[in-house]
Write a structure and sequence with these properties.
Length: 164
């Protein structure tokens, strides 16, 4: 097993922190969608929140089980409030957050490359693939709401799609 360099441990811990921050943000988005009465979109945000927590767990387990390194439980700041946003604004905020996350993971990949750590490169490449999926789904949702002549009807369709 290649020893995980200190610099990469710092970067992976920082990524865990960002995943938890994204988890909080999606959870706050769930509450905002519930406040607006869009239960399907609230469910979608709820699942995204779980996904982000799962990403944090994945990194922690990778460090512990594959690299004998110790992840640090992060402090996570309060999420921004998403109340009083329209559903389109909420989805655009999520898209911006995912774009930023992709940048973070790209940075992690570059670090891993610089430190010649193929394992972390592979891990980051898998994360980037997931980011692409998230960004694609969000772009589709935003496009649907923006392109519709009747935004209300498009919203009802979208909300139905994600209803539990
Ligand atoms: Fe994530």
């Amino acid at each position: 097993m290649k020893v995980l360099g200190n610099e990469l441990i710092v970067q992976l811990n920082s990524q865990i922190q960002k995943e938890y921050a994204a988890c909080h943000a999606y959870w706050a988005m769930e509450w905002a969608f519930l406040d607006l009465g869009w239960k399907g979109l609230a469910q979608w945000a709820h699942e995204e929140a779980s996904g982000e927590r799962h990403h944090a767990k994945g990194i922690a387990y990778y460090m512990l089980k594959k690299r004998a390194a110790r992840p640090q439980m992060p402090m996570v700041a309060a999420s921004q409030s998403f109340y009083d946003m329209t559903p389109l604004e909420l989805l655009q905020a999520a898209a911006a957050m995912e774009a930023e996350m992709t940048e973070n993971v790209n940075r992690l990949y570059t670090y891993a490359e610089d430190f010649d750590d193929g394992g972390v490169c592979l891990y980051a490449a898998d994360m980037l693939e997931e980011q692409e999926k998230s960004e694609g789904e969000l772009a589709q949702m935003v496009k649907m709401l923006k392109a519709a002549d009747d935004e209300g009807a498009a919203l009802i369709l979208l909300d139905e799609k994600y209803k539990p």
